[in-house]
Design a protein that fits this description.
- The protein is elongated, with a radius of gyration of 22 Å.
- It starts with 6 loop residues before the first helix and ends in a 6-residue tail after the last helix.
- It has a single domain, classed as MetI-like fold (Orthogonal Bundle), CATH 1.10.3720.
- α2 packs across α10.
- It is mainly α.
- The chain has helices at 7-21, 33-46, 48-80, 82-97, 104-111, 115-139, 143-151, 156-193, 200-209, 213-241.
Amino acid sequence: MSKYVFLGPILVICIWVLVSLFKLASPLFLPPFFETISTLLILLRQGNVFFDIWATVYRTLTGFFLAGVLGVPLGLLVGNYLKLYKTFEVVIDFFRSLPGTALFPLFLLIFGIGDGSKIATAVFVSLWIILINSAYGVLYSSKLRQKVGFTLGANRFQIFRDIVVMDALPQVFVGLRTALSISLVVVVVSEMFIGSKLGLGQKIFDAYLTYETTKLYAILLITGLLGYTLNKIFVAFEKRMVHWAGK
C-alpha cells in the first residue's frame, strides 16, 4: 500500500474541520466533522443502520450479478461475430444512452415498489456497461495469436475459449468493476425516489426531509465507505482472476 494513500482523506478532513471551525459554511449545509463522526458512531452502535446497509448491498449485488450473467456471454458473443455486432450496434448504443433513472416509472409499473424495481434498474444500467466492455475485449483480441492457434491445428471453439476469451478478460473485468460501482449508485438513488422501508438511499432521503444534516452526512459517509469496500474486494478478486493483465 502506498504511503500516500491516506494523504487525500486527511487533507479533505482538515479542510472540512477548518471550514466548520471558521464558520465559512452554515452548519445546515456542512455540519462539524467530529459531530458527524459522533452521529455515525451512534448509528453504528444502535445497529439499525446495518439492516439498511444489508438491504442496499443485497439489491446492488443481485442487480450486478444478474447483469453480469447476461452481459458477459452476450458481449463475448456479439464481439466474436462482427456482423452480429454491426447488426445490434445501434440498438446497444440506444439503450446504453437511456438514463436508468428515467425508467423508474416503467419498472415501478412492471415490478412494483419492492426490491424488484430497484434491482431491475441496476440490471438495466449495468448490463450495457458489461456487454460493451466484453464485446470490446473480444474485438481487440490479438489476431496474431488467433492465427498462430489456427496454424497449430486448434479449432474455432478452442481459439475462442483459450485465446479470445483470455484476451478479453481484462476488459471484461473493467466493465464488471465499473458496473458494480454504478449498480450501487443506481440502487441508492432508486431507494431515495422509489421509496423503501430499508436502504441507505431511503435513510438519506429521510434525513433530508427532516433537515437532520449531521445524520445525512453520516449516512453519506457510510455509503461512500460501502462503495469503497465493495470496489476493493472486487479489485482483489480481479487481480487473482486476471493476474497476467498489464504484464
